[in-house]
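dude i think i finally got it to work??
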Amino acid sequence: MGSDLFKIARAVDGDDFFAMRVRIACELQKITYNRDVLLTVAQEVAGYITVDEAGTVDTSGVPDEAIISALPAATQAEDEEAV
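look at this
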């Protein structure tokens, strides 16, 4: 199952480790962490997330640099919603 939506859903709602990594990246970059940021980052890095034959999602292959690089997209989405 290679669906990006499945990968994003499981990363956001089923992987506390991924959420913690995004939260820490936000704190280090002085960005407010929330679910919208988590969703946008997961969407930006979905290509690094793998799914095995049993449907288990693995986010351990997402490099820290990819998470940090995805934060500007997340904050831009936040800014556009505020307008």
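Residues 73 and 81 are 12 Å apart (CA to CA).
im so relieved honestly
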